[in-house]
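User: Can you help me understand a structure? I only have the sequence.
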Amino acid sequence: MSFEVMLQQLCIGFTATLKIFFFTLLFSLPLGMIIAFGRMSKNFVIRSLSKLYISVLRGTPLMLQLMVVYFAPYYAFELRFGSGYRFIAVIIAFVLNYAAYFAEIYRSGIESMPLGQYEAAKVLGYSKSKTFFKIILPQVIKKILPPITNETITLVKDTSLAQVIAFAEMFTMAERVAARESSIMPLFVAGVFYYIFNFIVMFVMERIEKKLSYYR
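Assistant: Let's start by predicting it. Here is the structure, written out as tokens:
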């Protein structure tokens, strides 16, 4: 197999990896915020359920969660889905998992805000929602950007776990080509792809951090 053909096959896998990355962030970031609000709720039931959700999703392997989401419909309800369900299962598992991590990041950022800011906003006549979105949230975003970046970088590498339910992302394609050609080169090239992808993510996040550093 020529190097060009190998790259074409890896690019097909890389497209799948990009889809996992994009859809996971698209849905897990807002879901994480909702769970964070539940975690900080004054309602005991909502707070307890949110804590349990975070505990379970952070305390069990993502690989296991992928298998549960993919196989549970059949073993629990005898539901059969087509091969297209693999991608849906991957996205569901990744979103649920990363939302739990993002929820704790959001919570730590929100709770780090001084109470004086809430009191000052109340004196100025701001409503609770306006205080949060106009005053608190912009500061929280600045504080949580580094840990969000770390989780995003981890997500790039975690996409390879999709192979556990036979979803053909980049690492799976690299393994197939490597086995067929009896060569380690495809795995090395896949590693370069991951590194470049992470480098771009880090570059973009660093640019965002600099944009938000108003006082430096």
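Now, to help you interpret it: The chain has eight helices and no strands. The mean pLDDT is 87. Let me know which part you'd like to focus on.
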